Backbone:
């Protein structure tokens, strides 16, 4: 945004638009997720311990109390692991998605209980829940890295116009505008150094740990960290077209952009799952 645009919005010559930086609330749920992970660990540990004890002493429980006492002993870990899965299955069924991993787990374990195979029912539910937990933990590291990148997203740029430095939103900086970056700040837009010397940390973007020397004429990437001197940079692209914005866009939309293999598996599962359920029902009859 040029000084002309600032004036056209009602600012005087000695005024600068100073918008407030919007904190990205996408990282606000980190504590809640950690608490959920601890609760899941406790649930799995309790279920696994009860399952192991019941499996180990099943014969003694049946002999001392009666076969009926084995059912509540297995029911506790089964319900601890299975209530959430049954809830997810019902949610999917309300969406007319009747054949999914949740309904398969429910059908398989209920069938095992009907056949009197209590240990198998609990084992299937427990190990499925355990596998889901490890999958979630494996993905949590990537999510934390993404959250850190989002937290470092620059919201403001110090626009230099008519010997004035005005803070404006990065989305409002036009190509060719000059902006200032001070030591320790994130570079808000892709550009070319006009004046000043410094070094930049590009590791959040490229993974390169060594700093890059910046001199007049050097190219800079949005999201890099200016390590030392003050720089004046000429924007070479809009923020929406910057290196960092493209990375964030790819990250945020990755879950919606399935690979060809994922699309094939989704189509295959749509036929495979109901076929297996139907064949199992025929065998049972």
Residues:
């Amino acid at each position: 945004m040029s000084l002309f645009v600032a004036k056209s919005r009602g600012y005087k010559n000695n005024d600068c638009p100073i918008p407030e930086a919007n904190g990205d609330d996408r990282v606000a749920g980190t504590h809640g997720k950690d608490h959920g992970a601890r609760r899941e660990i406790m649930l799995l540990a309790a279920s696994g311990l009860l399952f192991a004890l019941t499996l180990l002493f099943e014969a003694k429980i049946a002999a001392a109390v009666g076969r009926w006492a084995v059912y509540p002993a297995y029911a506790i870990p089964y319900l601890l692991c299975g209530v959430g899965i049954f809830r997810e299955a019902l949610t999917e069924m309300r969406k007319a998605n009747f054949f999914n991993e949740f309904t398969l787990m429910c059908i398989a374990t209920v069938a095992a209980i009907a056949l009197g195979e209590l240990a198998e029912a609990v084992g299937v539910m427990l190990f499925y829940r355990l596998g889901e937990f490890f999958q979630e933990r494996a993905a949590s590291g990537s999510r934390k890295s993404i959250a850190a990148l989002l937290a470092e997203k620059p919201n403001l740029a110090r626009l230099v116009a008519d010997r004035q430095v005005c803070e404006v939103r990065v989305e409002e900086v036009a190509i060719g505008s000059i902006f200032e970056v001070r030591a320790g700040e994130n570079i808000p837009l892709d550009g070319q150094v006009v004046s000043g010397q410094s070094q930049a940390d590009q590791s959040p973007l490229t993974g390169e740990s060594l700093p890059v020397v910046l001199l007049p004429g050097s190219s800079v990437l949005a999201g890099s960290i200016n390590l030392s001197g003050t720089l004046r940079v000429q924007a070479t692209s809009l923020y929406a077209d910057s290196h960092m914005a493209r990375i964030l866009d790819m990250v945020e939309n990755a879950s919606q952009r399935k690979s060809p293999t994922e699309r094939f598996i989704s189509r295959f599962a749509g036929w495979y799952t109901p076929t297996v359920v139907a064949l199992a029902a025929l065998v049972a009859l």
